[in-house]
Amino acid sequence: MKIDWAALGTVFGVSLSATVALVTLFVLGIVGLSKHEAATSRGGTATLARSGAYACFAVCAAAVAYGIYLIVA
């Protein structure tokens, strides 16, 4: 049995990068909703923060759906 270490390293690197990117996007979405809540409680509006948060969550959902598609197909 021969292990292709270069391919294994590539898979590890891509997996790590994708994980960090998705977690970062999700955290940015949570921060955006938090900013919206803080602005709303002070009587202001932060529709840009809410829209950005929803966009981050949409990208996360699309990435997860694509991953599931790759596994199932």
From TrEMBL:
> Membrane-crossing residues?
6-31, 52-72
Question: Which keywords appear in this protein's UniProt record, sorted alphabetically?
Answer: Membrane, Transmembrane, Transmembrane helix
Q: What is this protein called?
A: Secreted protein
Q: Lineage in the entry? A: Bacteria, Bacillati, Actinomycetota, Actinomycetes, Kitasatosporales
